[in-house]
Amino acid sequence: MAQAKTFVIGDIQGCFGGLTALLDEVGFDARRDTLCAVGDLVARGEDSLATVELLMSLGDRFHAVLGNHDLHLLAVTQGIRKVKASDKLENLLNSPRLPDIIEWLRQFPLAKRIDPQHTMVHAGLYPAWSTDTLLALSDEISNKLLGPDWVSVLQNMYGDSPRLWKSSLSGDARARFIINACTRMRFLNEDNALEFTAKGSPLDAPANLHPWFTPPNPQLADNERVLFGHWAALNGRTQHPQFIGLDTGYVWGQSMTAYEVNSQQLISVPAR
Question: How many CB atoms lie within 10 A of CB 197?
């Protein structure tokens, strides 16, 4: 009998064709294998509804963390933000299953430990945090998103400040920093404050900015790996063996990538 495998997939973004092609390529068997996703399940691709329905059908064989597009979808469903044409979410928003999809998305955390060696998060690990700290802060947001006042989390998450982490942060400011670090972070400035103006390749960034994964993080054990998405301009390249970028820009015409946890192998399929 074949050994069960765990695959972690990069940003799907509603690209149903890419998702099914990649699952075929890796030989995913829903009776045995587990699929994880680093967030941004929806938006911009050709069929977010079919993508979500497929992932929902996997039941407890599927795990994900929330990305910025997933949170934005939740905000749209609650009338907090308007949908953009480029989101291509019309069929999902008009689906009779939308209430079930909302409840399904709300269950996912901002970060999840897959095994003692692998932790996934959409944008990355803020360099002042250990993975234990990341998971504890993720739990703070999950408890709010699963609570009766969950819509207020979405209402207050928009904005770029505070940019610098302090453990003394509280209330909306604390929640906003956690969500921004987990779902929007790419660059930091010299003080390791979040910087959102630059979104491209590190090679093209202003001299005062650096990627979140370049400062030393002594709290990260040598055998730990952080799996993340969000930053298509990296095309998966971090130059650091502990930080595995999985957003390889399928929705932009590049490829969709999965990481098999046991073999630590990367598998990709090109965009159609």
Answer: 10
Q: How many domains does the chain have?
A: 1
DSSP string across the chain = -PPP-EEEE---TT-HHHHHHHHHHHT--TTT-EEEE-S--SSSSS-HHHHHHHHHHTGGGEEE---HHHHHHHHHHTTSSPPPGGG--HHHHT-TTHHHHHHHHHT--SEEEEETTEEEESS---TT--HHHHHHHHHHHHHHHTSTTHHHHHHH--S----S--TT--HHHHHHHHHHHHHT--EE-TT--EE-S--S-GGGS-TT-EETTSS--TTS-TT-EEEE-S-GGGTT--S-TTEEE---BGGGTSEEEEEETTTTEEEEEE--
Residue 134 has a pLDDT of: 98
Give domain status of residue 1, yes or no: no
CB distance 69 to 99 below 8 Å: no
- pLDDT, residue 1, reads 66
Q: What CATH number is associated with residue 190?
A: 3.60.21.10
pLDDT at position 272 is: 85
Range of the structural domain that residue 39 is part of: 6-270
Residue ranges of the chain whose pLDDT lies below 70: 1
Look at the pTM and tell me if it is higher than 0.85.
yes
